[in-house]
Amino acid sequence: MFYDTHAHLNAEVFTDNLEDIIKEANEALVSYINVVGFDPKTNELANKIAKTHEFIYASSGLHPVDIENISLSHLKEVEDYLKQDVTVAVGECGLDYYWNKETKAKQIKYFKKQIELSKKYQKPLIIHVRDAIQDAYDILYEASKDGLLQGVMHCFSGSKEMALEFLDLGLYISLGGPVTFKNAVEPIEVAKIVPIDKLLIETDCPYLAPHPYRGKLNKPVYVKIVAEAIASIREMNIEDVATYTTNNAKKLFKLN
Ligand SMILES: [Zn+2]
Question: Quick one: what percent of the chain has pLDDT higher than 90?
């Protein structure tokens, strides 16, 4: 059984074929899926999809790339979703200086506020970081001091040394399609060294489809390809990768 811990089934591209995509995933034993919101509209849709499908859960958050259009009332909406059982995480949230450097200060402000919400509702963070790893680390390091920090570095793209630093803060590491890419270097090194009880898998669909579907539409069924790649890198069998990563996710997202 597989758990795709990061899927954007709330993306527009899935509007017309959502049920087929979910059925295809379930038939391939991708039994659990987190639908991850990133702005007010996708948070609402994630909530709706999770409420109407068994074993699909929602994460509610405000993505750093879209932060310029965000206000505190949107944060209040995130908080309202966090009061519901179908919402298992806060995010995706974090820092992204690759797509948007001008909003740095606002990104940091909203990242910190979402960390506070994560602690208040004891629901883990789903953290996005791009070209901002040191700032993200510094913020998370400060936030870890009270022992209440919990979350996952989603689609982790940093070095193995940085992975170890985030693991030290008590965070999980999630790997997706890039670990299957022909030119992958760092994700493969990271896949080797993350303790098996701290590893999650994801697709980040519709983006980042794994090899040999790179550049095409990604979907939750492909999380098996990610698991296969990790199994081969770690010289494990895929069933064990599936069992560990599913149990890790169920623990982090507090599913019974
Ligand atoms: Zn995402």
Answer: 98
What mean pLDDT is predicted for residues 211-223? 97
Tokens standing for residue 139: 């913020």
**What confidence category does residue 148 fall into, taking pLDDT thresholds of 50, 70 and 90?**
very high
pLDDT at 226 over 90: yes
Distance (angstroms) between ligand 1 centre and the Cα of 210 equals 15
Compute, in angstroms, the gap from residue 144 CA to the centroid of ligand 1: 23
Q: What is the pLDDT of residue 256?
A: 75
The DSSP annotation for 165-195 comes to HHHHTT-EEEE-GGGGSTT--HHHHHHHHS-
Q: Distance between CA atoms of 196 and 245, rounded to whole angstroms?
A: 8
Contact, 147 vs 176, CB < 8 A? no
Report CA(45)–ligand 1 centroid distance (Å): 14
Tokens (6 digits) for 103:
């909003």
Q: What is the CATH number of the domain that holds 126?
A: 3.20.20.140
Q: Rounded to whole angstroms, how far apart are CA atoms 201 and 224? A: 9
Q: Which amino acid is at 64?
A: P
Q: Ligand 1 centroid vs 119 CA: distance in angstroms?
A: 21
- What's the chain's average pLDDT? 97
- From the CB of residue 241, how many other CB atoms can be counted at a distance below 10 Å? 25
Number of domains into which the chain is organized: 1
pTM listed for this prediction: 0.97
Q: Encoding tokens for residue 124?
A: 């883990």
Full domain range(s) for residue 85 = 2-252
Predicted confidence (pLDDT) at residue 14 exceeds the cutoff of 90: yes
For residue 42, the model assigns a pLDDT of: 98
Beta carbons of 174 and 202 less than 8 angstroms apart: yes
Whole-number Å distance, alpha carbon 126 to ligand 1 midpoint, is: 9
